[in-house]
Amino acid sequence: MSFLGPRLAKLQQKITPSQAILLSAPSDIQYFTDFQFLVPAEREAYALLTKKQAYLIHNQFSPVVNHQKIINLPGCNLKKLLKHLDIVQQQHSFKTILVDESSLFVKEHQALQQKSSWQVRGLAKQLIWELRMSKDTSELAKIKKAVKISQQAWQQLEPQLTTGMTELAVKELLETQLKKLGSPQPAFPTIVAFGQHTALPHHQPTDQKLTSETAILIDFGASYQGYCSDMTRTIWFGTKPDPEFIKVEKLVKQAYQAAKQKLKAIAALKVKNLDQAARQVIKKAGYGDFFIHTTGHGLGLDIHEPPSINWKNQQPIKPGMVFTIEPGVYLAGKFGYRYENTVWT
Question: Which residues of the chain does CATH 3.90.230.10 include?
C-alpha cells in the first residue's frame, strides 16, 4: 500500500491553485516521493507540488521509483530546474512558488527570484511538520524495526566491554553490529564516553581506554529504510559503583518513568507536560541544575524533528507521534547519567 497519495493530497489541500511548493530538504522529498538522496549535502532532487499534480525533479543518474501520483522530470541542475518550472507553470498557471528557505542553496534562491514569471515566498515549514509529526503505519513499522536493531546491538555489545578498549574501538564495534543487524549506517554519530567524559552530553569518542570502576555512557541509534531510532544506556563498569552513581541512576530512571507514565492518557496532554514530569523528579531531589537539556525530541526520517520535548512547548500530543524520552544528570568532573528510549503514541 502506498502512503504517498494521501501525504501529497494533505499538503496540496493547504495551497491555492495560484501557488506551487518547491521542496528541497532531502527528508521532505523522501517523505513525499520515496526518493532517497545518496549524499544529502548535494542537490540530487526537488519535489514540486501544484494544487493538482506532484513532480519529482531528479538527477538523471539517480534511481527513481515510478508512482501513479508523481511525474518524474529528469535533470535538476539550475538550468534544468528553471526549464521544468516554466513548463509546469504553463500547465498549471501558478503565480507564486513557496520555498523552504532553510534548505535551498543561496544560488538556487537567487535564480528563482530572478525570474519575472513568478514570485518567490517562504514556505511555512509547520505545514510540513504537521504532517510528518504523526507517523503512518508504514513509518511506525520502520521505526520499530530500527528500535529493535538498536536493542539487539546493545545486548550484544554490553558483554563485550573489557578493560583496555578505547571509546573509538567501542564505537566501531557497535556500528559493525548495527550493520550486521540490518542498519546500513548509524542514525547519527555514535557517542561513547568513559569516566568524566560521560558528564558531557554530546562527547565524541577518543582514544581514552576503559578502566575498571568507572561510568560508561553510550548514545546511539540505528537507521532502517531511512527511519531512525535513538537510545542511551549508562552503566557502571565494575563491581563497586560510586554511591552517588547509584543514587543518580535510580533518580533518572524515576524521571523517565514519570514522563512515560503521562503518555497513558494523551487527551489534553501537551509536550511540555512530559518535560515537567521528568524535570520535577530530578529537581525535587536537588539535581535540577544538572539536568541541562530537554527531555527529548521527535524523530523519524531525521534524528531531530519536532516536537521538542521542552518545558515551553504547547504542542498537543497526538496519536502517531514518535519521540525520545531522555532525562539526564551531569556532574562535571565525576560522571553523567542519561537513560533514553524511543517511544510512540
Answer: 137-344
Cα distance between residue 203 and residue 262, in whole Å:
30
What is the Cα–Cα distance from 126 to 10, expressed in whole angstroms? 13
230: number of Cβ within 10 Å:
25
The CATH number of the domain covering residues in 137-344: 3.90.230.10
What count of other Cβ atoms lies within 10 Å of the Cβ of residue 117?
A: 12
Contacts of 152 (CB under 8 A, 6+ apart): 177, 181
Sheet holding 191-194, edge to edge: 191-194, 214-220, 231-237
pLDDT in tens, 198-238: 999 999 999 999 999 999 999 999 999 999 999 999 999 99
- Would you tell me how many other CB atoms lie within 10 Å of the CB of residue 49? 23
- Which string of DSSP letters, residue by residue, matches 284-296? HTT-GGG--S-SE
Query: pLDDT tens, 45-65?
Result: 999 999 999 999 999 888 888
Asked if omega into 74 is within 30° of 0 (cis), the reply is no
Which residue ranges does the chain devote to CATH 3.40.350.10? 4-132
pTM of the predicted protein model = 0.93
Report the topology of domain 4-132: Creatine Amidinohydrolase; Chain A, domain 1 (3.40.350)
Return the residue matching grid coordinates 509529526: 133
Torsion sign over Cα 53, 226, 146, 282? negative
Look at the alpha carbons of 179, 185, 186, 190 in this order and tell me if their dihedral is positive or negative. positive
